[in-house]
From TrEMBL:
It holds the Pfam family DUF1264. Residues 1-47 are annotated as: Disordered. InterPro entries: OBAP-like (IPR010686). This is Oil body-associated protein 2B. Residues 9-20 have a biased composition (Basic and acidic residues). Belongs to the OBAP family. It comes from the Eukaryota.
Amino acid sequence: MDGEGVRPPSREGLQRRSGEEGVGLRGGEIHGLAQERGEPVPPGKPMSVEQQLLDKGAAMLQSLKPIKQFSQHACTFALYGHDLTRQIETHHFVTRINEDFLQCAVYDTDESHGRLIGVEYIITDRIFETLTPDEQKLWHSHAYEIKSGLWVNPRVPEMVIKPELENLAKTYGKFWCTWQTDRALMFSPQPGVVRPDLVQRRDKKYNVDSSSLKVSRVEIPEPEWINPQVDYWKSHGKGFSIVVEPTEMKKIAPFP
């Protein structure tokens, strides 16, 4: 027994529970599944059964409260800030912090082998207008993404999610892609930019029709005014990328 009177589960108990609940795929199976689907596999050895049991034991004994706050899954698309021809399907797992601020862990798939590829922060226009012009340049709008049917919440009926979509259409997001850190900042889809084949593949997977969703969302109100700093590339023809360079280390450095 530990100090709180909780007996850690035995390996045998974990194996039995894993068998009863059908928890997870074996490491090699996850690796193989990704390869079969033509999806990139991160470097490293497949997960062993022993490691999965250790992870399961830790998960059973810890609260993991921030993770359990994810309340919705949204699938959409993102474009690299320096090259709009590079486009990816993204899966946002969303936590609402308050009425004006949401945060998302972004994965490349909603399957069990999904890779965490970035984070997105979402704020209302009320918060956005308090940001400095230089900061506003890094944010994108969501109105087109929502109204065009590109943003979907898989398996959630449209009539159920519609009130949330109406709120999201007036928000702004900043998406940092951490998987390829030399590029980092991502833009949201805009008219005539997203590759049709990406949309068709996504729609087929979740049995949705973006064109029909676009029609059903035509009445969703857009922001009365879009700040000219947002979606900076549309009006200025310039994107953003990160350059990592060596710098002197100082005891006290100015901020920013």
